[in-house]
């Protein structure tokens, strides 16, 4: 249409799970499907944005017109994302990044033997918070918070701690919301405290609503 504030903007989106190597054949991961992040990438591209989609291992085709970067671990996702920190207009963290990784992945395959073995995990970098720390006033940071029913306050805390402009809170313990389904129930919270509860929507429709809210932010801040 040419009228979207996202027209020509550089948008970076992280999506999917990450895999953290235990040894050459095993990993720690989660059930993220990547559907929400891919839906946002598709919707942003349609609004004329220049979209880079940094994704962990998922079973989804790249949306046409979107630059796709495939990564495996949180460290790889972080390295791929950091390249864009200084130059993107909008960073959306939709990936379910593993919070921890095995401290020292074993080469080859861990042998079966002892009744109990220990795995030491170390914390991964918070990619979105890293962007939030160094973004300029012309850049927007948007995140997700997957929480239980009582997690709205947690989502607000994350918005502040990660220096985000907007956070999309979704329920992980509700049917039709969260991982690996085609629908989502999002509550959008702006850094001004404005809270918008969306109804149960397809992830495509939820992505459009999220981008509507982001466009609104762009207009309010005259980022167009
Ligand atoms: O703190 P929590 O993991 O709940 O925050 C979720 C948000 O932060 C999501 O937007 C997610 O993509 C992002 N995140 C990240 N790097 C991490 C952990 C979370 O970018 N290591």
TrEMBL record:
Residue ranges annotated for the DNA/pantothenate metabolism flavoprotein C-terminal domain, each copy included: 6-216
A cellular component term, taken from the record's GO annotations: phosphopantothenoylcysteine decarboxylase complex
Reaction catalysed by this enzyme: (R)-4'-phosphopantothenate + L-cysteine + CTP = N-[(R)-4-phosphopantothenoyl]-L-cysteine + CMP + diphosphate + H(+); N-[(R)-4-phosphopantothenoyl]-L-cysteine + H(+) = (R)-4'-phosphopantetheine + CO2
UniProtKB keywords: Decarboxylase, Flavoprotein, FMN, Ligase, Lyase, Magnesium, Metal-binding, Multifunctional enzyme
Keyword Amino-acid biosynthesis on entry: no
Cofactor(s) in the UniProt record: Mg(2+); FMN
Gene Ontology molecular functions: FMN binding; metal ion binding; phosphopantothenate--cysteine ligase activity; phosphopantothenoylcysteine decarboxylase activity
EC annotation from Swiss-Prot or TrEMBL: 4.1.1.36, 6.3.2.5
Keyword Nucleotide-binding among record annotations: no
Domain of life of the native organism: Bacteria
Binding sites annotated in the UniProt record for CTP: 99, 109, 125-128, 144, 158, 162
UniProt cofactor note: Binds 1 FMN per subunit.
Location of region: Phosphopantothenate--cysteine ligase: 11-224
Pathway recorded for this protein: Cofactor biosynthesis; coenzyme A biosynthesis; CoA from (R)-pantothenate: step 3/5; Cofactor biosynthesis; coenzyme A biosynthesis; CoA from (R)-pantothenate: step 2/5
GO biological process, one term: pantothenate catabolic process
Family: In the N-terminal section; belongs to the HFCD (homo-oligomeric flavin containing Cys decarboxylase) superfamily.
Function summary: Catalyzes two steps in the biosynthesis of coenzyme A. In the first step cysteine is conjugated to 4'-phosphopantothenate to form 4-phosphopantothenoylcysteine, in the latter compound is decarboxylated to form 4'-phosphopantotheine. Catalyzes two sequential steps in the biosynthesis of coenzyme A. In the first step cysteine is conjugated to 4'-phosphopantothenate to form 4-phosphopantothenoylcysteine. In the second step the latter compound is decarboxylated to form 4'-phosphopantotheine.
Name of the featured protein: Coenzyme A biosynthesis bifunctional protein CoaBC
